[in-house]
Amino acid sequence: MSQIADQLRDKLTKELKAVHVEVEDTSANRCAASFKALVVSPQFEGKPLLQRHRMVNTCLAEELKEIHAFEQKTLTPEQWEKQKSQ
Amino acid sequence: MNSLIRATARCLRPGSAVYLTRQADTRMCLTPGQRFLCSATGIKKDLAEIVKKDKVVVFMKGDPSQPMCGFSNAVVQILRMHGVDDYASYNVLEDQRLRQGVKDFSNWPTIPQVYFNGEFVGGCDILLQMHQNGDLVEELEKLGIRSALVDTENKSK
Prior knowledge:
Chain B: One of its GO terms (biological process) is iron-sulfur cluster assembly. Chain B: This is Glutaredoxin-related protein 5, mitochondrial. The structure holds two protein chains of two kinds. Chain A has one domain (about 5-80): GMP Synthetase, Chain A, domain 3 (2-Layer Sandwich). Chain A has four helices and three strands. Chain A has helices spanning about 5-15, 50-60, 60-65, 75-85, and strands spanning about 20-25, 35-40, 70-75. In chain A, strands 1-2-3 form a three-stranded mixed sheet. In chain A, β1 (about 20-25) and β2 (about 35-40) form a beta hairpin. The radius of gyration of chain A is 13 Å and the shape is globular. The mean pLDDT of chain A is about 95. By secondary structure, chain B is an alpha+beta fold. Chain B has a single domain (about 1-155), classed as Glutaredoxin. Helix content of chain B is about 45%, strand content about 15%. Chain B is built from seven helices and six strands. Chain B has helices at about 1-10, 45-55, 70-80, 95-105, 125-135, 135-140, 150-155; strands at about 55-60, 60-65, 65, 90, 115, 120. Chain B has a four-stranded mixed sheet with strand order 4-1-5-6. In chain B, strands 2-3 form a two-stranded antiparallel sheet. In chain B, a hairpin with a 2-residue loop joins β5 (about 115) and β6 (about 120). Chain B is globular and about 50 Å long.
């Protein structure tokens, strides 16, 4: 796991009180150019998708300046449980 | 619903067919007398007009007939599946001020970006999820656009 991925995960866990975070370096040679993130946070409760994504973008604003591509999936703990059981 | 997801997987496969769409003139700033996209300070004002000019506006890398990025391609393919051909697309690779300008304007760090009726919808992830959960059909309906998938779904029932 790259340093930047760790950094992203720590920040999301801390600032969005995420209960589960998966960060994957999706760049061709794992050069930290692109990432894919799954963020599970109770703070997403009752918020539309766009707002959730904006929360993640704001949280990682500094880091995203250096990242070429960023995919994200934002779930509430409830949605996460449901997805796991599927 | 499953067929929708399968269709998505199909459309996201690299090298899938690319549909030709009408393209808005992205070289408006070269037209004499038009200030569109010309001044860096005016870009915010110009973007406010651009996003309202057409029901569906896409800021992307490349153009619908030749997307230059997988995420931009995904947006084009999703719209194509819903039969949305008549939308304005702007190639941010052709204009650095537009590329940065639209990020600032939308307060969104990545390209592609999709607007419906002047309102920011989201990027590729959001459009894909809206496609998967059915919201996209509803949002298009609000724009007066009947998704082609509604007819396909009805037929398969």
